[in-house]
Amino acid sequence: METQQTAYRERILVDPEIMAGKPIVRGTRIPVELVLKRLAQDLDFQSIFESYPRLTLEDVRACLEYARVLVAAEEDFPAPTILSTTA
Q1: Distances from the Cα of 27 to the Cαs of 68, 69, 82, 85, in angstroms?
Q2: By the 8 A CB rule, do 11 and 25 touch?
Q3: Which of 24, 54, 57, 62 is geometrically suited to a Cys-Cys bond with 11, CB 3.0 to 4.6 A?
Q4: What is the value of pTM for the model shown?
Q5: What is the mean pLDDT of each successive set of 10 residues along the chain, which is 87 residues long?
Q6: Which domains does the chain have, with CATH numbers?
Q7: What is the largest CA-CA distance in the chain?
Q8: How far is the C-alpha of 53 from the C-alpha of 47, rounded, in Å?
């Protein structure tokens, strides 16, 4: 498990001088948030790699691990909001 955490730390960078401090894939200006959004929209990795040729499978895995660690560290879990489909 430690190896995965180390891997994301080697691949994810948070620097206030780059992208206003948003976490990015190291060596790029690709925000972790963008990678996660693209995965949520379409799990076709090939389309992500075509759009962002510098991105690797290991980078994508690091983004997912980074998100998992952040969620696992949450202490306050808000109750889910149920959206009504009727007006």
Answers
A1: 22, 21, 40, 44
A2: yes
A3: 62
A4: 0.76
A5: 64 94 95 95 89 94 93 75 66
A6: 2-72 (1.10.10.10)
A7: 50
A8: 10
